[in-house]
Design a protein that fits this description.
Layout: H1 2-26, E1 58-63, E2 71-74, E3 80-81, E4 89-90, H2 96-107, E5 116-121, E6 130-135, E7 141-144, H3 151-157, E8 170-176, E9 179-185, H4 187-191, E10 207-210
Parallel strand pairs: 6-10
Antiparallel strand pairs: 1-2, 1-5, 3-4, 6-7, 8-9, 8-10
Length: 215
Amino acid sequence: MKGIGKFIFRFSRLIAISCSVFIVACSSSLPGLPTATVHPSLTKNINDYSYLIGPGDSLNVFVWGNAEVSGTYKVRPDGMITTSLVEDIHASGKTPTQLAREIEAKLANYIRQPIVSVIVDGFVGPFSEQVRVIGEASQPKAISYTKNMTLLDAMIQVGGLTEYANGNHASLIRVVNGKQKQYGLKIDDLLEDGNIKANVDLLPGDIIIIPESWF
């Protein structure tokens, strides 16, 4: 009965998709949108990886000896933050150390020889540095890249595959020299058979697409 139920579920999904395709075909006269712009990772040397601040990150900015101008600031969607004394500092795409030095330079107009520390609380990072897992993962989501992250690490974070996933036909999309390239993955071999050779290194900006198996 379980097998029959599974077949009925997949058949109903196939019908729904077919109907959607038919509707799209009937609306083919509508203008199409241009393909999304390719944004390569900001990380230039993966062997010297440093976390880059992104929109949504919460930053603790501590100015030594000046508690009144220290505080916690949220990076806005435009990548900027506004501190107590300095407005609109571009934070996204910078390391915490780089941002601290920039804040010091701006605060020097108000404070003598300021010493600033920036601590990230709640890591999000720029879109270009996130690893995104979509399709038949148990919990599809964007993951903040961690140094030396592998495919296995990412799959643990998304809770593995759904029962309908075709892991051995999954793809990895990566921007190489400004162009998108597609690579095959063997996630079933990695998770179900324990084939560690199917584990691969991930890079900032990778996209993992996991298709559904119809049979």
